[in-house]
Amino acid sequence: MRYILYLSAAVLAVFILKSCSSTDARELPVLGIPKIIDGDTIPHRIPDFTFMNQDSQLVTNETFANAVYVADFFFTSCPTICPKLTRSMLRIHDYFEGREDVLFLSHTIDIRRDSIPRLKMYAENLGVTSDRWHFVTGDMNDIYDIAEDYMSIAIEDPNAPGGFDHSGWLILVDGNRHIRSFCDGTKDSDVDRLMEDIKILLHEM
Amino acid sequence: MKCRAIFLLLSGIFALLISINTACEFNPHRQGQWLYESHCANCHMEDGTGLANIIPSLHQSPLLRNETIHQTACLIRYGIRTPDPLNPEEEIYPMPPIPDLSKTEISNILNYIGNHFDNRAGYINPVELNSILSQCPNATERKW
Prior knowledge:
heterodimer; A: 205 residues; alpha+beta; Glutaredoxin; five-stranded mixed sheet; two-stranded antiparallel sheet; globular; B: 144 residues; mainly alpha; Cytochrome Bc1 Complex, Chain D, domain 2; disordered C terminus
């Protein structure tokens, strides 16, 4: 009888220890649909891009080469979910305060109204700078195309509130341009999980 | 056997007590809170703190006092249009109008936010909103 008790305690202990260590060693997958070229499987990557940020600086893939970054799509006069997304981005930004290897990239999908001075005002009203958070604009098609590479939706739609339809994902990208995680930016618990994934990714670098 | 019967009886009573307790839990702002969370919380946030200098916090809001809360009925129905200081032809940071909320729904929202987030506006009823909503300044800018 007593042996059975000891044995089950031991088994339990092993289980507990194992489940703890496996969370530490958790690895993030590379997301997106891979391409198969000449029999080789090439994981999905964010393609080359060139946009301009709130301080009229060019922002390219190089800007994020030694960092992980969180990307989203928004517009300043958005009447729906953008403020909630931005607030989630801000929460992540503040949580990793001072870390220059955790950066942020918000693409406007309202090229016509969101001029560079207007993006600058938005960043200032939010209390953040282009040291870590880039609000970018560029060619409309480039932005709509790259949204698909971020597995997001961004399209002009006169029937949608505010004139644009877009999804609420926050996308986590690593230094090799691979998407490693994402979350629903309108759900706090999902954003918490993304922050844990950022820590895992930083460990990997 | 007897032991078991007593145990079952006790757990039955316990379960009953719990269900009575939760059913009686009284939330006077249930609809108001629900409407707030579906129509307003994406901007003002569930906790009412807003977004930095972009969306105002509703905590101790000057527009959610006893003397002012009626005006907020107009804001909910007609929205707020804010001209972009960089280009007055354009708008920025709008609060969208919600024309199809009923007076009861508007007063439920007002009674929720007027008595949450550190506000103490007291209560208004839908009938009071009749005259207020008919006198809203349908203006493009906030002038109240």
